[in-house]
């Protein structure tokens, strides 16, 4: 069966699956603000919106940087109980990742990692987050930049994220992984600089050679009512690496769980999360469009429901499978080189 919309009034505080030493924002909960009696409306495709182009974060100009900073500053400054507020958006990740939604008679954890739910959930999450940012600065063309970690010049934390005067900055990142140090997918907790070649080889394996089927790439099935418990054996190749490893590499080694980016409940607190995920999402589009590989069609996945607040604070329900076509969501990725597609040779 597909997962139904979770009942927000039974969202668990604290969530059932927090790591030791976790501290939650928003008064100790990661549940979104909710007025009882509210039911979600169905998502409508934004067919009249202009196409938004997500650019590589290391290539954006000063004008974009100022715009992004203004949007994020506005988002951080919204009222505490506004579901669009940055801290609330960050909590969305915790709610869906740390066991706040237990659904059905067997109380299955509606967990959006470690299975085929991973890519569609995160595409939808970014979609709403991006639309809120655009709305706050009155710019429908606003698009999140992607962290282009799959090319040599993009392998360090992008400059717009390390400028301490901007809203994109976060202090909770590993001190020895600051630019010009590049991502180390071989050993993400070490201070050693990564190798461009091995990073390319890693990406090639997890997106191309080792990800020939939907189940290898997206992850295995996870069905409502099956009573299953999520674990890494279901994760898709892209999720396992580079996705997980980049998270760990960014998170701060001086925090118990490598907060913010290094653990699920807190990773949405670092603005870099959304650019990291934009690149994960871009990898999906390359796998699907460029490599011509096919997404899952199983309706237990495509009809599974997620719920988000939109830019107007409306609660909206979406079908996992309705995000497959990015052009219907009115966004695309800037074309850049993909040196790893050849295996890094
Ligand atoms: Cu929901 Cu990068 O994880």
Automatic annotation (TrEMBL):
The keyword Glycoprotein does not apply. Transmembrane segments: none annotated. The keyword Hydrolase does not apply. It comes from the Eukaryota. Its cofactor is Cu(2+). Keywords: Copper, Disulfide bond, Metal-binding, Oxidoreductase, Thioether bond. One of its GO terms (molecular function) is catechol oxidase activity. This is Tyrosinase copper-binding domain-containing protein. It comes from Taxus chinensis. The chain holds residues 79 to 423 of 583 of the full protein.
């Amino acid at each position: 069966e597909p997962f139904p919309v979770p009942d927000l009034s039974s969202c668990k505080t604290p969530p059932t699956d927090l790591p030791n030493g976790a501290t939650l924002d928003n008064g100790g909960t990661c549940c979104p603000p909710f007025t009882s009696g509210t039911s979600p409306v169905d998502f409508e495709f934004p067919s009249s919106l202009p196409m938004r182009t997500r650019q590589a974060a290391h290539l954006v100009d000063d004008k974009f940087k100022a715009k992004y900073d203004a949007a994020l500053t506005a988002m951080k400054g919204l009222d505490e109980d506004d579901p669009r507020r940055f801290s609330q958006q960050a909590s969305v990740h915790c709610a869906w990742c740390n066991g706040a939604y237990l659904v059905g008679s067997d109380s299955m954890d509606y967990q959006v990692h470690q299975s085929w739910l991973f890519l569609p959930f995160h595409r939808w999450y970014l979609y709403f987050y991006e639309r809120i940012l655009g709305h706050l600065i009155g710019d429908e063309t606003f698009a999140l930049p992607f962290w282009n970690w799959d090319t040599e010049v993009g392998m360090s934390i992008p400059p717009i994220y390390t400028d301490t005067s901007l809203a994109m900055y976060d202090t909770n990142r590993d001190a020895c992984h600051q630019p010009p140090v590049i991502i180390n997918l071989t050993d993400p907790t070490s201070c050693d600089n990564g190798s461009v070649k091995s990073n390319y080889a890693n990406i090639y394996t997890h997106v191309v050679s080792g990800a020939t089927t939907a189940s290898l790439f997206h992850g295995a099935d996870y069905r409502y009512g099956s009573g299953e418990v999520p674990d890494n054996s279901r994760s898709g190749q892209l999720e396992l690496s580079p996705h997980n490893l980049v998270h760990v590499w960014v998170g701060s080694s001086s925090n118990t769980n490598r907060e913010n980016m290094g653990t699920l409940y807190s990773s949405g607190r670092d603005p870099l999360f959304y650019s990291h995920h934009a690149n994960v999402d871009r990898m999906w589009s390359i796998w699907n469009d460029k490599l011509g590989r096919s997404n899952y069609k199983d309706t237990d996945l495509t009809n599974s429901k997620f719920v988000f607040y939109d830019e107007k604070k409306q609660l909206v329900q979406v079908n996992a499978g309705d995000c497959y076509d990015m052009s219907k969501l009115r966004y695309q990725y800037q074309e850049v080189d993909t040196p790893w597609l050849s295996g890094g040779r």
